[in-house]
Amino acid sequence: MTDETIDEIMGATYRALCKHGYASLRMQDIADESTKSKATLHYYYDSKHDLLCAFLEYLYDSFAERIAEPTGEDPVEELTALLDCLLTPRDENTHQQFQTAILEIKAQGPYDETFREKLTRFDRLMHDRIEGVLREGVESGHFAADVDPDGTAEFLVTILNGARSRYVAVEYPLDGTRTMLRRYVESSLLADGSGREVVAE
């Protein structure tokens, strides 16, 4: 399968998920969003489950590129930029519909080992990226010496996942979480005498 075909099928899967959600999604719905027939999709993927597993892999690669981008002049700026990135929708028009579909897929995690393994990779990627910035900040003296990079990264991933789920379930605005995370960085992570202030936008 060519990269062009993969991109087309994955784009169609994204659009179909936004329109129909996970539970109601059919292979025909995905075919309707692309130039490929349902038979062609089945040629490449045996079932909706197989296609969605491939879709999660595709999302993982894109997500890895996205969270590698935020940088800053020091670890404090980099962490703030990273947290902002993780709480900023990539597409305002379809973000909530897509996140709703992803939440449906996450709900299958306890019952579907393949989904659970792929979703765990996203969590681990977020954790490792945040932990790396925290560890660098502790070593450089920007973050307090008693900050536990591993435990703090686990905590922040839990907050981020909860905020996004709450946004989907009850439309709680992500701006509130973004502001509180900035305050948390300033009040709990910065080294004494750093002279830094994390300004909430």
UniProtKB/TrEMBL annotation:
Sequence intervals crossing the membrane? none
Residue ranges occupied by any HTH tetR-type domain in the UniProt entry: 3-63
* GO MF annotation, one: DNA binding
Against PROSITE patterns, the record matches this protein to: HTH_TETR_2
The signal peptide here is: none
The lineage's top-level taxon is: Archaea
Q: Which ranges does the entry annotate as DNA-binding region?
A: 26-45
Keyword annotations for this protein? DNA-binding, Repressor, Transcription, Transcription regulation
What is this protein called in UniProt?
A: TetR/AcrR family transcriptional regulator
Spell out the Gene3D superfamilies in the cross-references: Tetracycline Repressor, domain 2 (1.10.357.10)
UniProt-listed PANTHER family: HTH-TYPE TRANSCRIPTIONAL REGULATOR BETI, HTH-TYPE TRANSCRIPTIONAL REGULATOR RUTR
Q: Which Pfam family would be a valid example here?
A: TetR_N
